[in-house]
Amino acid sequence: MFFKKIHKRIKVIILIILFLFVLIIGKVFYIQVISYDKLNNLAESLWSRNLPIEANRGIIYDRNGLILADNLTTTSLVLIPNQIKDKEGTAKALSEILHVSYEDMLGHVMKISSIERVHPEGRRLDFEIADKIINLNLPGVYLVKESKRYYPFDTMLSHTIGFVGIDNQGLSGLELMYNDYLTGSYGAIKYFSDAKGTRLDLSEVYEQPQNGVNITLTINSELQKSLERELDNAVIKYKPDRALGIAMNPNSGEILAIASRPNFSPSNYQDYSTEEINRNLPIWATYEPGSTFKIITLSAALEEKIVDLDNDTFTDTGGITVEGATLHCWKHGGHGLQTYLQVVENSCNPGFVNLGLKLGKETLFEYIKNFGFGSKTGIDLNGEASGIMFDINKIGDLELATTAFGQGVSVTPIQQITAVSAAINGGILYKPYIVKSLNEPETNSVIMQKEKQIVRKVISEETSEKVRYALESVVTNGTGRPAFIDGYRVGGKTGTAQKVSDGHYMVGNYIVSFMGFLPADDPQIVLYIAVDNAKGVTQYGGTIAAPIARNVLLDAISILGIEKRDGASEKKYNYLDKKYYEIPNVIGLNSKEAIKLLKNFKVEFSGTGNIITYQSPSAGERIYEGEKVRLLLTD
User: Fold this and answer.
1) pLDDT at position 434, please?
2) In the chain, at which end, N or C, are there fewer CB atoms within 10 A of the end residue's CB?
3) Same domain for 470 and 422
4) Number of folded domains in the chain?
5) Strand, coil or helix: what is 29?
6) Entry pTM
């Protein structure tokens, strides 16, 4: 009996031992197989250290692949305090190279941390300083790769692209709005050390950083350069408070060029005021539009069929009285009897007041709303304003009348160019946009393509055609004549708006503007120029803004490949205008005969003899009177 009990206990003990053995085997299996990666990572984290490697920020391109925002490779100083043996000597040497105080550098060296980034004095060092640090060969002192944003065209497109801070994070413009896409993810050089931080003689592990996503814009850099140049010239010539310009494809809403003055250098944004770097005027500025807003009134009147441009007439006496207030025409004494086409050509305020009153407040303001005024366009840029419209319940005939010619309402440039694009493109309001696509960083292949987005149909194709016809007539016969380009069909409208301060109109202080497009029968580009408070000149949209727009449109002809159009009208000249003349063929004639035929031009002869064998420009070309024609004489 006794032995049976002992035998039974032995069996139990053996079973317990077997059970414990199975548990141990299971635990070992769990540790070595199932939890190996997790536990290995935990263990590794105790004795591994990472030297961070910054990824490149995504590149920003124009529509043709030109780089507008790039990256430069720089280095930054990182310390491993536990590996620094001579802390005072290291601090002294680094402080002398970086030109910072010994006390500040000693604070970094003595820091109780596994890794200490020397910020900001050790960030994004140039190669000369980096070489001096490398040559010291100090323990615990490392230089790691960092990426520095580089803007190859400096101030060009500055407000739109924006800028980045010391940590390469977007702070304004597209850099801020698309920061999550543009920012890549850090990589690292992983090394191993013991508990005291002493570096172990083990192989380093390189973890490659992931670069940010590239962005392609709708911007045409050649057109952008043209716009920037003309705004710079305007600043030199007129010394305005502000100036701006936008070019858009009216058939899609793509922004082709956008700029404002004053501008800034994104690489040196610290040198500018907050107002200078944050105010992207084409989408932020709000002001009374003046006569460019008449395009909306005209569109509404034509769509509602309350006016026939060629057959209906209006007599302008110089002013029109509404609710006891007299609203004046810019021309003293008025324009007299006019067709409504001439009302548009002459930018006659009383004529547009009459159109507004005929439309009525409900109808006119419904069109204004449908054209996008009073709300943001939704352009993919930050800082857009919505403008200010009258409360429909507080509008009387006087407010209706002033709105009809662009006074008393507040709009943004982007709203104006978007609305006018709808008026001339067949009646479709598009949502404006500036980012064309997002691109994979290694191959730059498209990963997201933006398409044009229709907001609504505003007017009919028939009405839009009539609007184009009227605005082309403004450039050939009316206030927009300074924007005329011989052989090309240009449409446009001038604007001169008196500025408001503290609820009162300012004296002698205007925002002058011009809205132009070409070809007038099939618009490929619409351009808006505005100049705020030009100095030393009579302030009219036709005398200041229209010539600026003409120069940009001249460049657009070659940049966009726009050809001369049949049906281009002859310009109506006044006594101040230079005239275009066609150059006759004088090859084969003698010098006296040539001078007689070229009486409208300056003639310059070269060569010897009396017979003309070459002329420049060629016969049939049209140039301004008084311009030079060169002739080659031979025997």
Assistant:
1) 97
2) N
3) yes
4) 4
5) helix
6) 0.79
Q: What single-letter amino acid sits at 26?
A: G
Give the pLDDT confidence of 74-102 residue by residue, as tens digits: 888 888 887 888 888 888 888 888 888 88
- Closest-CA residue to 174 (of 217, 211, 210): 217
Backbone angles phi, psi at 145, to 5 degrees: -70, 135
Torsion sign across C-alpha atoms 261, 266, 267, 273: positive
Strand partners, 260: 244
In a domain, 130, yes or no: yes
pLDDT band at 46 (very low <50, low <70, confident <90, very high): very low
172 within domain boundaries: yes
Contact 353, 147 (CB under 8 A): no
- Does residue 291 have an active-site annotation? yes
CA–CA separation, 608 and 606 (whole Å): 7
Weakest-pLDDT range from 266-270, 507-511, 548-552, 578-582: 578-582
SS3 content of the chain, % helix, strand, coil (to 5): 35, 25, 40
Q: Shortest CA distance to 480 belongs to which of 518, 432, 452? A: 518
- Under a CB-based contact definition with an 8 Å cutoff, are residues 518 and 488 in contact? yes
Catalytic site residue from 95, 193, 260, 291:
291
pLDDT computed for residue 201 by the predictor:
54
Which run of H or of E encompasses 515? strand 504-518
H helix count then E strand count, the chain: 20, 26
C-beta of residue 535 within 8 angstroms of C-beta of residue 510: no
Residues 469/339, Cβ–Cβ less than 8 Å: no
Phi-psi region of 35 (alpha: psi -120 to 50; beta: other; left: phi over 0): alpha
Q: Tens digit of pLDDT for each residue in 259-268? A: 999 999 999 9
